[in-house]
Design brief:
The structure holds two protein chains of two kinds.
Chain A: E1 2-6, E2 9-13, H1 22-29, E3 48-51, E4 54-57, E5 70-72, H2 81-88, H3 98-111, H4 117-123, H5 134-147
Parallel strand pairs in A: 1-5
Antiparallel strand pairs in A: 1-2, 3-4, 3-5
Helix pairs in contact in A: 2-5
Chain B: E1 2-5, H1 9-18, E2 22-25, H2 31-36, E3 44-47, E4 57-60, E5 63-67, H3 72-79, H4 84-91, H5 96-101, H6 104-110, H7 118-123, E6 127-132, E7 135-140, H8 141-144, E8 145-147, E9 150-151, E10 158-165, E11 171-176, E12 187-194, E13 199-205, H9 215-223, H10 232-245, H11 256-280
Parallel strand pairs in B: 1-3, 2-3
Antiparallel strand pairs in B: 4-5, 5-10, 6-7, 6-10, 8-9, 11-12, 12-13
The chains are: A alpha+beta, B alpha+beta.
Bound molecules: flavin-adenine dinucleotide and FE2/S2 (inorganic) cluster (2 copies).
Protein backbone atom coordinates (compact mmCIF):
# COMPACT_ATOMS: atom_id res chain seq x y z
CA UNK A 1 0.00 0.00 0.00
CA UNK A 2 1.31 3.42 -0.99
CA UNK A 3 0.26 6.62 0.74
CA UNK A 4 0.18 9.75 -1.39
CA UNK A 5 0.19 13.05 0.43
CA UNK A 6 -1.34 15.62 -1.89
CA UNK A 7 -2.04 19.18 -0.82
CA UNK A 8 -1.81 18.09 2.79
CA UNK A 9 -4.31 15.23 2.51
CA UNK A 10 -3.21 11.59 2.77
CA UNK A 11 -4.60 9.15 0.22
CA UNK A 12 -3.99 5.42 0.59
CA UNK A 13 -3.48 3.85 -2.83
CA UNK A 14 -3.44 0.22 -3.86
CA UNK A 15 -1.04 0.08 -6.79
CA UNK A 16 -1.43 -3.39 -8.24
CA UNK A 17 0.59 -2.24 -11.27
CA UNK A 18 3.68 -0.27 -10.19
CA UNK A 19 3.82 1.47 -13.57
CA UNK A 20 1.08 3.89 -12.51
CA UNK A 21 2.49 7.39 -12.82
CA UNK A 22 1.86 10.15 -10.32
CA UNK A 23 -0.02 11.91 -13.11
CA UNK A 24 -2.44 9.03 -13.71
CA UNK A 25 -2.86 8.50 -9.98
CA UNK A 26 -3.78 12.16 -9.47
CA UNK A 27 -6.20 12.32 -12.37
CA UNK A 28 -7.77 8.86 -12.45
CA UNK A 29 -7.64 7.69 -8.83
CA UNK A 30 -7.81 10.89 -6.77
CA UNK A 31 -9.97 12.86 -9.20
CA UNK A 32 -7.54 15.79 -9.07
CA UNK A 33 -7.80 16.66 -12.74
CA UNK A 34 -6.23 20.11 -12.54
CA UNK A 35 -2.87 18.56 -13.46
CA UNK A 36 -2.91 17.99 -17.23
CA UNK A 37 -1.46 15.35 -19.51
CA UNK A 38 -0.04 16.85 -22.67
CA UNK A 39 2.61 14.45 -23.92
CA UNK A 40 3.18 11.81 -21.20
CA UNK A 41 6.90 11.89 -22.02
CA UNK A 42 8.38 14.83 -20.18
CA UNK A 43 8.40 17.25 -23.07
CA UNK A 44 5.56 19.73 -22.44
CA UNK A 45 5.41 20.57 -18.73
CA UNK A 46 1.58 20.42 -18.51
CA UNK A 47 1.88 17.91 -15.65
CA UNK A 48 4.25 20.01 -13.50
CA UNK A 49 3.62 19.61 -9.75
CA UNK A 50 5.72 20.29 -6.68
CA UNK A 51 7.35 17.41 -4.81
CA UNK A 52 8.76 18.49 -1.45
CA UNK A 53 8.66 22.02 -2.88
CA UNK A 54 10.61 21.32 -6.09
CA UNK A 55 8.98 21.26 -9.52
CA UNK A 56 8.85 17.86 -11.17
CA UNK A 57 6.95 16.21 -13.98
CA UNK A 58 4.14 13.99 -12.71
CA UNK A 59 4.22 11.94 -15.93
CA UNK A 60 7.84 10.87 -15.34
CA UNK A 61 7.33 10.01 -11.68
CA UNK A 62 5.92 6.75 -10.41
CA UNK A 63 3.14 7.13 -7.86
CA UNK A 64 4.90 4.49 -5.79
CA UNK A 65 8.02 6.69 -5.64
CA UNK A 66 6.04 9.44 -3.92
CA UNK A 67 5.34 7.54 -0.73
CA UNK A 68 6.41 9.85 2.10
CA UNK A 69 6.76 12.93 -0.15
CA UNK A 70 4.62 16.08 -0.10
CA UNK A 71 2.94 16.69 -3.44
CA UNK A 72 1.38 20.06 -4.26
CA UNK A 73 -0.88 20.43 -7.28
CA UNK A 74 -2.73 23.42 -8.73
CA UNK A 75 -5.70 22.51 -6.49
CA UNK A 76 -3.45 23.08 -3.48
CA UNK A 77 -2.73 26.74 -4.24
CA UNK A 78 -4.79 29.10 -2.16
CA UNK A 79 -5.45 32.07 -4.44
CA UNK A 80 -1.79 32.54 -5.23
CA UNK A 81 -0.95 35.97 -6.71
CA UNK A 82 0.21 34.19 -9.88
CA UNK A 83 -3.30 32.88 -10.53
CA UNK A 84 -4.69 36.41 -10.35
CA UNK A 85 -1.85 37.77 -12.51
CA UNK A 86 -2.45 35.10 -15.17
CA UNK A 87 -6.10 36.18 -15.39
CA UNK A 88 -5.33 39.90 -15.54
CA UNK A 89 -2.57 39.48 -18.13
CA UNK A 90 -4.64 37.10 -20.24
CA UNK A 91 -1.79 34.62 -19.98
CA UNK A 92 -3.66 31.79 -21.72
CA UNK A 93 -6.02 30.97 -24.49
CA UNK A 94 -7.27 27.37 -24.24
CA UNK A 95 -5.87 27.03 -20.72
CA UNK A 96 -4.57 23.49 -21.13
CA UNK A 97 -0.98 24.37 -20.25
CA UNK A 98 -1.94 26.84 -17.53
CA UNK A 99 -1.85 24.71 -14.38
CA UNK A 100 1.60 23.45 -15.38
CA UNK A 101 2.74 27.00 -16.16
CA UNK A 102 1.54 28.26 -12.81
CA UNK A 103 3.09 25.40 -10.80
CA UNK A 104 6.35 25.92 -12.67
CA UNK A 105 6.22 29.67 -12.03
CA UNK A 106 5.47 29.13 -8.31
CA UNK A 107 8.68 27.08 -8.10
CA UNK A 108 10.56 29.63 -10.18
CA UNK A 109 9.71 32.42 -7.72
CA UNK A 110 11.02 30.24 -4.90
CA UNK A 111 14.24 29.61 -6.86
CA UNK A 112 14.79 33.39 -7.18
CA UNK A 113 15.42 33.14 -10.87
CA UNK A 114 12.86 35.59 -12.21
CA UNK A 115 15.26 38.57 -12.28
CA UNK A 116 15.00 39.45 -15.96
CA UNK A 117 12.63 38.53 -18.78
CA UNK A 118 15.41 36.43 -20.29
CA UNK A 119 15.69 34.51 -17.01
CA UNK A 120 11.93 34.00 -16.86
CA UNK A 121 11.95 32.67 -20.43
CA UNK A 122 14.92 30.40 -19.73
CA UNK A 123 13.56 28.98 -16.48
CA UNK A 124 10.02 28.56 -17.87
CA UNK A 125 11.37 26.75 -20.95
CA UNK A 126 10.12 23.39 -19.71
CA UNK A 127 6.52 24.55 -20.18
CA UNK A 128 5.17 24.73 -23.70
CA UNK A 129 2.08 26.71 -24.69
CA UNK A 130 0.54 25.54 -27.91
CA UNK A 131 -1.57 28.72 -28.02
CA UNK A 132 1.54 30.88 -27.87
CA UNK A 133 0.58 32.96 -24.84
CA UNK A 134 4.24 33.26 -23.94
CA UNK A 135 4.59 37.04 -23.81
CA UNK A 136 1.59 37.34 -21.49
CA UNK A 137 2.87 34.49 -19.33
CA UNK A 138 6.19 36.32 -18.97
CA UNK A 139 4.32 39.53 -18.11
CA UNK A 140 2.31 37.75 -15.39
CA UNK A 141 5.38 36.12 -13.86
CA UNK A 142 7.36 39.37 -14.07
CA UNK A 143 4.66 41.30 -12.25
CA UNK A 144 4.45 38.85 -9.37
CA UNK A 145 8.25 38.55 -9.16
CA UNK A 146 8.57 42.37 -8.92
CA UNK A 147 6.04 42.58 -6.11
CA UNK A 148 7.30 39.55 -4.21
CA UNK B 1 5.88 -6.35 -12.64
CA UNK B 2 7.60 -6.06 -9.28
CA UNK B 3 8.46 -2.78 -7.63
CA UNK B 4 11.50 -2.92 -5.39
CA UNK B 5 12.19 0.04 -3.16
CA UNK B 6 15.66 0.16 -1.68
CA UNK B 7 16.09 2.36 1.36
CA UNK B 8 19.84 1.85 1.85
CA UNK B 9 22.70 1.24 -0.58
CA UNK B 10 23.42 -2.18 0.94
CA UNK B 11 19.81 -3.13 0.37
CA UNK B 12 19.93 -1.86 -3.22
CA UNK B 13 22.98 -4.05 -3.95
CA UNK B 14 21.28 -7.11 -2.43
CA UNK B 15 18.10 -6.49 -4.42
CA UNK B 16 20.08 -6.11 -7.66
CA UNK B 17 21.97 -9.35 -6.91
CA UNK B 18 18.69 -11.20 -6.30
CA UNK B 19 16.99 -9.61 -9.30
CA UNK B 20 19.58 -8.90 -12.02
CA UNK B 21 16.63 -8.38 -14.39
CA UNK B 22 15.42 -5.33 -12.42
CA UNK B 23 15.72 -1.93 -14.12
CA UNK B 24 17.14 0.68 -11.74
CA UNK B 25 15.22 3.97 -11.54
CA UNK B 26 16.94 7.13 -10.37
CA UNK B 27 15.40 10.35 -11.78
CA UNK B 28 13.23 8.27 -14.11
CA UNK B 29 13.55 10.78 -16.94
CA UNK B 30 14.70 8.06 -19.34
CA UNK B 31 13.10 4.99 -17.78
CA UNK B 32 9.63 6.53 -17.49
CA UNK B 33 9.51 7.64 -21.10
CA UNK B 34 10.09 4.03 -22.14
CA UNK B 35 7.45 2.78 -19.70
CA UNK B 36 4.85 5.34 -20.78
CA UNK B 37 5.48 4.53 -24.44
CA UNK B 38 5.34 0.82 -23.51
CA UNK B 39 8.71 0.11 -25.10
CA UNK B 40 9.61 -3.18 -23.50
CA UNK B 41 8.31 -4.04 -20.07
CA UNK B 42 10.97 -4.49 -17.42
CA UNK B 43 10.38 -7.52 -15.18
CA UNK B 44 10.98 -5.37 -12.14
CA UNK B 45 11.79 -1.79 -11.22
CA UNK B 46 14.38 -0.99 -8.56
CA UNK B 47 13.68 2.46 -7.12
CA UNK B 48 16.90 4.08 -5.90
CA UNK B 49 15.41 7.46 -4.97
CA UNK B 50 14.99 6.64 -1.26
CA UNK B 51 18.71 5.78 -0.90
CA UNK B 52 20.02 8.84 0.94
CA UNK B 53 23.73 7.95 0.50
CA UNK B 54 23.39 8.39 -3.25
CA UNK B 55 22.30 12.02 -3.00
CA UNK B 56 25.61 13.20 -1.54
CA UNK B 57 28.84 14.37 -3.15
CA UNK B 58 32.22 14.63 -1.49
CA UNK B 59 35.83 15.58 -2.19
CA UNK B 60 38.17 12.60 -2.40
CA UNK B 61 41.85 12.88 -3.30
CA UNK B 62 41.49 15.64 -5.85
CA UNK B 63 38.26 14.26 -7.29
CA UNK B 64 34.66 15.13 -6.69
CA UNK B 65 32.79 11.92 -6.00
CA UNK B 66 29.26 12.56 -7.24
CA UNK B 67 26.70 10.14 -5.80
CA UNK B 68 24.41 8.50 -8.34
CA UNK B 69 21.40 10.41 -6.96
CA UNK B 70 22.84 13.94 -7.27
CA UNK B 71 20.65 15.85 -9.72
CA UNK B 72 21.77 18.20 -12.51
CA UNK B 73 20.20 21.10 -10.60
CA UNK B 74 22.54 20.43 -7.70
CA UNK B 75 25.62 20.00 -9.89
CA UNK B 76 24.87 23.44 -11.41
CA UNK B 77 24.25 25.06 -8.02
CA UNK B 78 26.96 23.36 -5.97
CA UNK B 79 29.78 22.26 -8.27
CA UNK B 80 30.01 24.82 -11.09
CA UNK B 81 33.21 26.36 -9.68
CA UNK B 82 35.07 23.06 -9.47
CA UNK B 83 33.57 21.18 -12.41
CA UNK B 84 32.78 23.94 -14.93
CA UNK B 85 32.58 21.65 -17.97
CA UNK B 86 30.10 19.26 -16.37
CA UNK B 87 28.07 22.15 -14.97
CA UNK B 88 27.84 23.80 -18.39
CA UNK B 89 26.62 20.59 -19.96
CA UNK B 90 24.16 20.07 -17.10
CA UNK B 91 22.61 23.49 -17.77
CA UNK B 92 21.66 22.34 -21.27
CA UNK B 93 19.87 19.16 -20.18
CA UNK B 94 16.11 19.16 -20.77
CA UNK B 95 14.27 21.72 -18.66
CA UNK B 96 14.32 22.83 -15.01
CA UNK B 97 11.86 20.03 -14.22
CA UNK B 98 14.06 17.41 -15.93
CA UNK B 99 17.18 18.77 -14.19
CA UNK B 100 15.44 18.56 -10.80
CA UNK B 101 15.23 14.78 -11.22
CA UNK B 102 17.74 13.69 -13.85
CA UNK B 103 21.22 12.52 -12.87
CA UNK B 104 24.61 11.88 -14.43
CA UNK B 105 24.37 8.25 -13.28
CA UNK B 106 21.11 7.95 -15.26
CA UNK B 107 22.78 9.54 -18.27
CA UNK B 108 25.53 6.89 -18.00
CA UNK B 109 22.99 4.10 -17.42
CA UNK B 110 21.11 5.13 -20.56
CA UNK B 111 24.46 5.37 -22.41
CA UNK B 112 22.94 7.30 -25.29
CA UNK B 113 25.67 8.67 -27.57
CA UNK B 114 23.77 11.98 -27.33
CA UNK B 115 23.87 12.25 -23.52
CA UNK B 116 25.17 15.68 -22.55
CA UNK B 117 27.28 14.63 -19.58
CA UNK B 118 29.51 12.37 -21.65
CA UNK B 119 31.73 14.95 -23.42
CA UNK B 120 32.76 16.74 -20.19
CA UNK B 121 33.22 13.41 -18.36
CA UNK B 122 35.52 12.22 -21.16
CA UNK B 123 37.35 15.55 -21.35
CA UNK B 124 38.11 15.53 -17.63
CA UNK B 125 38.97 11.83 -17.34
CA UNK B 126 36.12 10.80 -15.05
CA UNK B 127 35.87 7.36 -13.47
CA UNK B 128 32.66 5.41 -12.87
CA UNK B 129 32.41 3.66 -9.50
CA UNK B 130 30.41 0.49 -10.11
CA UNK B 131 29.44 -1.70 -7.20
CA UNK B 132 27.81 -5.06 -6.57
CA UNK B 133 27.63 -7.49 -3.68
CA UNK B 134 30.96 -8.81 -5.02
CA UNK B 135 32.77 -5.50 -4.60
CA UNK B 136 33.68 -2.27 -6.35
CA UNK B 137 35.10 -1.66 -9.85
CA UNK B 138 36.53 1.67 -10.97
CA UNK B 139 35.81 2.03 -14.69
CA UNK B 140 37.43 4.88 -16.67
CA UNK B 141 34.52 6.55 -18.43
CA UNK B 142 36.11 5.93 -21.86
CA UNK B 143 35.78 2.18 -21.19
CA UNK B 144 32.28 2.50 -19.81
CA UNK B 145 30.53 3.04 -23.16
CA UNK B 146 30.59 -0.20 -25.11
CA UNK B 147 28.08 0.44 -27.91
CA UNK B 148 24.93 2.36 -28.81
CA UNK B 149 23.01 2.49 -25.50
CA UNK B 150 25.33 -0.20 -24.08
CA UNK B 151 27.67 0.02 -21.16
CA UNK B 152 30.18 -1.99 -19.17
CA UNK B 153 28.02 -2.74 -16.11
CA UNK B 154 27.38 -6.38 -15.23
CA UNK B 155 23.74 -7.29 -14.65
CA UNK B 156 24.15 -7.32 -10.86
CA UNK B 157 26.11 -4.05 -10.71
CA UNK B 158 24.89 -0.53 -9.98
CA UNK B 159 26.57 2.84 -10.36
CA UNK B 160 27.45 4.12 -6.90
CA UNK B 161 29.14 7.37 -7.96
CA UNK B 162 31.13 9.20 -10.63
CA UNK B 163 34.58 10.52 -9.74
CA UNK B 164 35.47 13.68 -11.63
CA UNK B 165 38.99 15.10 -11.26
CA UNK B 166 39.11 18.76 -10.30
CA UNK B 167 41.56 20.43 -12.68
CA UNK B 168 42.81 23.98 -13.01
CA UNK B 169 42.19 25.50 -16.43
CA UNK B 170 39.34 26.32 -18.77
CA UNK B 171 36.60 23.83 -19.65
CA UNK B 172 33.88 24.43 -22.21
CA UNK B 173 30.91 22.57 -23.62
CA UNK B 174 29.04 23.26 -26.83
CA UNK B 175 25.91 21.59 -28.14
CA UNK B 176 23.92 21.92 -31.33
CA UNK B 177 20.18 21.44 -31.20
CA UNK B 178 17.12 22.66 -32.99
CA UNK B 179 16.16 25.04 -30.20
CA UNK B 180 17.47 26.24 -26.86
CA UNK B 181 15.61 23.99 -24.46
CA UNK B 182 14.51 20.37 -24.16
CA UNK B 183 16.51 19.20 -27.08
CA UNK B 184 18.67 16.17 -27.72
CA UNK B 185 22.05 17.12 -29.13
CA UNK B 186 22.54 16.86 -32.89
CA UNK B 187 26.16 16.74 -31.84
CA UNK B 188 28.18 18.15 -28.98
CA UNK B 189 31.73 18.78 -27.91
CA UNK B 190 33.61 19.27 -24.64
CA UNK B 191 37.13 20.60 -24.13
CA UNK B 192 39.41 20.90 -21.08
CA UNK B 193 42.78 22.65 -21.05
CA UNK B 194 44.55 21.37 -17.95
CA UNK B 195 46.85 24.20 -16.96
CA UNK B 196 48.75 22.21 -14.33
CA UNK B 197 50.24 19.51 -16.53
CA UNK B 198 49.52 21.15 -19.90
CA UNK B 199 47.36 18.32 -21.16
CA UNK B 200 44.17 18.56 -23.19
CA UNK B 201 40.93 16.65 -22.78
CA UNK B 202 38.15 16.31 -25.34
CA UNK B 203 34.80 14.58 -25.65
CA UNK B 204 32.56 14.17 -28.69
CA UNK B 205 28.84 13.52 -28.31
CA UNK B 206 26.25 12.20 -30.74
CA UNK B 207 28.70 11.66 -33.60
CA UNK B 208 29.72 8.00 -33.21
CA UNK B 209 28.15 4.81 -31.78
CA UNK B 210 29.49 5.87 -28.38
CA UNK B 211 30.72 9.13 -26.92
CA UNK B 212 34.46 9.29 -27.58
CA UNK B 213 37.60 11.38 -27.23
CA UNK B 214 39.49 12.98 -30.10
CA UNK B 215 42.85 11.60 -29.05
CA UNK B 216 44.94 12.98 -31.92
CA UNK B 217 43.43 16.42 -31.51
CA UNK B 218 44.34 16.34 -27.80
CA UNK B 219 47.98 15.44 -28.56
CA UNK B 220 48.20 18.08 -31.29
CA UNK B 221 46.98 20.84 -29.00
CA UNK B 222 49.15 19.75 -26.07
CA UNK B 223 52.09 20.12 -28.48
CA UNK B 224 50.89 23.62 -29.38
CA UNK B 225 50.09 24.73 -25.85
CA UNK B 226 48.46 28.20 -25.71
CA UNK B 227 50.95 31.07 -25.75
CA UNK B 228 50.23 34.44 -27.35
CA UNK B 229 47.36 34.76 -29.80
CA UNK B 230 45.55 31.70 -31.07
CA UNK B 231 47.02 30.93 -34.49
CA UNK B 232 44.09 30.38 -36.87
CA UNK B 233 46.03 27.52 -38.45
CA UNK B 234 46.22 25.75 -35.06
CA UNK B 235 42.48 26.27 -34.48
CA UNK B 236 41.70 24.97 -37.97
CA UNK B 237 43.89 21.88 -37.56
CA UNK B 238 42.38 21.17 -34.13
CA UNK B 239 38.90 21.36 -35.66
CA UNK B 240 39.88 19.01 -38.46
CA UNK B 241 41.35 16.46 -36.06
CA UNK B 242 38.23 16.56 -33.87
CA UNK B 243 36.01 16.07 -36.92
CA UNK B 244 38.24 13.22 -38.11
CA UNK B 245 37.76 11.40 -34.80
CA UNK B 246 33.99 11.26 -35.31
CA UNK B 247 32.07 8.55 -37.15
CA UNK B 248 28.56 9.94 -37.35
CA UNK B 249 25.49 8.54 -39.05
CA UNK B 250 22.60 10.21 -40.87
CA UNK B 251 19.48 10.26 -38.71
CA UNK B 252 16.37 12.33 -38.05
CA UNK B 253 18.35 14.95 -36.15
CA UNK B 254 21.07 15.58 -38.71
CA UNK B 255 23.14 14.21 -41.55
CA UNK B 256 26.57 12.74 -41.10
CA UNK B 257 28.08 15.50 -43.23
CA UNK B 258 26.46 18.21 -41.14
CA UNK B 259 27.69 16.64 -37.91
CA UNK B 260 31.30 16.46 -39.12
CA UNK B 261 31.16 20.08 -40.23
CA UNK B 262 29.51 21.25 -37.01
CA UNK B 263 32.03 19.41 -34.85
CA UNK B 264 34.93 21.20 -36.49
CA UNK B 265 33.18 24.53 -35.89
CA UNK B 266 32.41 23.73 -32.24
CA UNK B 267 35.96 22.51 -31.66
CA UNK B 268 37.39 25.77 -33.03
CA UNK B 269 34.96 27.91 -31.07
CA UNK B 270 35.38 26.19 -27.72
CA UNK B 271 39.14 26.29 -28.24
CA UNK B 272 38.89 30.04 -28.84
CA UNK B 273 36.97 30.55 -25.58
CA UNK B 274 39.34 28.32 -23.63
CA UNK B 275 42.45 29.95 -25.09
CA UNK B 276 41.13 33.39 -24.22
CA UNK B 277 40.34 32.32 -20.67
CA UNK B 278 43.81 30.85 -20.23
CA UNK B 279 45.38 34.12 -21.42
CA UNK B 280 43.18 36.18 -19.12
CA UNK B 281 44.10 33.91 -16.27
CA UNK B 282 40.46 33.19 -15.39
CA UNK B 283 36.97 33.03 -16.81
CA UNK B 284 36.68 34.76 -20.15
C1 LIG C 1 11.94 15.95 -22.19
C2 LIG C 1 13.30 15.33 -21.98
C3 LIG C 1 14.44 16.05 -22.34
C4 LIG C 1 15.71 15.50 -22.16
N1 LIG C 1 16.78 16.25 -22.52
C5 LIG C 1 18.02 15.73 -22.37
C6 LIG C 1 19.15 16.51 -22.73
O1 LIG C 1 19.04 17.66 -23.15
N2 LIG C 1 20.37 15.94 -22.58
C7 LIG C 1 20.54 14.68 -22.09
O2 LIG C 1 21.67 14.21 -21.97
N3 LIG C 1 19.47 13.93 -21.74
C8 LIG C 1 18.23 14.42 -21.87
N4 LIG C 1 17.14 13.67 -21.51
C9 LIG C 1 17.34 12.29 -21.03
C10 LIG C 1 17.48 12.14 -19.51
O3 LIG C 1 16.91 13.22 -18.83
C11 LIG C 1 18.96 12.02 -19.10
O4 LIG C 1 19.57 10.92 -19.74
C12 LIG C 1 19.13 11.86 -17.59
O5 LIG C 1 20.50 12.03 -17.27
C13 LIG C 1 18.68 10.52 -17.05
O6 LIG C 1 18.87 10.51 -15.65
P1 LIG C 1 17.79 9.85 -14.67
O7 LIG C 1 18.37 9.90 -13.29
O8 LIG C 1 16.47 10.45 -14.85
O9 LIG C 1 17.81 8.35 -15.22
P2 LIG C 1 16.74 7.17 -15.15
O10 LIG C 1 15.67 7.36 -16.13
O11 LIG C 1 16.35 6.90 -13.75
O12 LIG C 1 17.70 5.98 -15.64
C14 LIG C 1 18.31 5.99 -16.92
C15 LIG C 1 19.03 4.67 -17.16
O13 LIG C 1 20.07 4.50 -16.22
C16 LIG C 1 19.85 3.35 -15.42
N5 LIG C 1 20.28 3.72 -14.07
C17 LIG C 1 19.83 4.76 -13.30
N6 LIG C 1 20.51 4.82 -12.14
C18 LIG C 1 21.41 3.81 -12.16
C19 LIG C 1 22.41 3.36 -11.23
N7 LIG C 1 22.62 3.98 -10.05
N8 LIG C 1 23.17 2.29 -11.60
C20 LIG C 1 22.98 1.67 -12.79
N9 LIG C 1 22.06 2.05 -13.71
C21 LIG C 1 21.28 3.12 -13.39
C22 LIG C 1 18.39 3.04 -15.56
O14 LIG C 1 18.10 1.68 -15.35
C23 LIG C 1 18.14 3.46 -16.99
O15 LIG C 1 18.56 2.46 -17.88
C24 LIG C 1 15.85 14.19 -21.64
C25 LIG C 1 14.71 13.47 -21.26
C26 LIG C 1 13.44 14.03 -21.41
C27 LIG C 1 12.24 13.24 -21.01
S1 LIG D 1 2.54 15.39 -19.74
FE1 LIG D 1 4.26 15.43 -18.46
S2 LIG D 1 5.59 16.73 -19.53
FE2 LIG D 1 3.97 16.51 -20.95
S1 LIG E 1 -3.12 28.36 -23.34
FE1 LIG E 1 -3.43 26.81 -24.79
S2 LIG E 1 -1.63 25.66 -24.58
FE2 LIG E 1 -1.19 27.37 -23.40
Amino acid sequence: MTTLTVNGTEYPLDLADPRVTLLDALRDRLDLTGTKKGCDQGACGACTVLCDGRRILACLTLAAQCDGREITTIEGLESHPLQDAFVRHDAFQCGYCTSGQIMSAVALLGENRAGTDADIREYMSGNLCRCGAYSNIVAAVREVARHA
Amino acid sequence: MDFLRATTWAEALRMKADRPDATPVQGGTDVMVEINLDKGRPKALLDLTPVAELTEWSVESGNIRIGAGVTYTRIIAELADRLPGLAQASRTVGSPQIRNRGTVAGNLGAASPAGDSHPPLLASGAIVEAESVDGTRMIPVGDFYTGVKRHALASHELIRAIHVPVKRGPQYFSKIGTRNAMVIAVCSFGIALNAEDRTVGTGIGSAAPTPRRAVEAEAFLAGNWPAGDLDPAVAKRFGELVAAAAAPIDDVRGSSGYRVHALAVMARRTLGWAWQELRNGGRS
